[in-house]
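Internal tracking record. Fields below are filled automatically when a chain is submitted to the structure queue. Please do not edit lines marked as system-generated. If the sequence contains nonstandard residues, flag them in the REMARKS field before resubmitting.
Queue: standard
Priority: normal
Entity type: single polypeptide chain
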Amino acid sequence: MRNGEVKREMLLLNKLNHQRAVGEIIADALTNFFGTLSFLLFNAMLFSVWLAVNLGYAEGMIPFDPFPFELLTTIVSLEAILLAVIVLISQNRASKVADLRAEIDVEIDLETFKDMEKAIKTLQRIEERLDRLEQRPEYPRGSRAF
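SYSTEM-GENERATED OUTPUT FOLLOWS
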């Protein structure tokens, strides 16, 4: 990839990043957090404490969501819905970026193809000239062929 092509791709991707809606910015930030070990550990700790309290293992705390943990089930279901929607928003944006990159790649490929055609034509002209030079009668020593 040539420098001009790299610069053009970077400019287009920066432009796309600056055109993000507030919701897309938030979705990207949340998606980056959701994919971490910290988020997994946070949920594991939260659910562990919830279960400990509501199964009566936490002394001094009154269970507020007895078995079968209907409130916990509702909260986990809502969390799953929100996570799915946020991840989909982020994936849609990533898809737009991938489409833009693919479009840029096609443009670069076309430019490269044109450059290759020029190079082939130049090589063909050089080959024709060399063929003509080979067909010329030999010159005496010390004279120039050109």
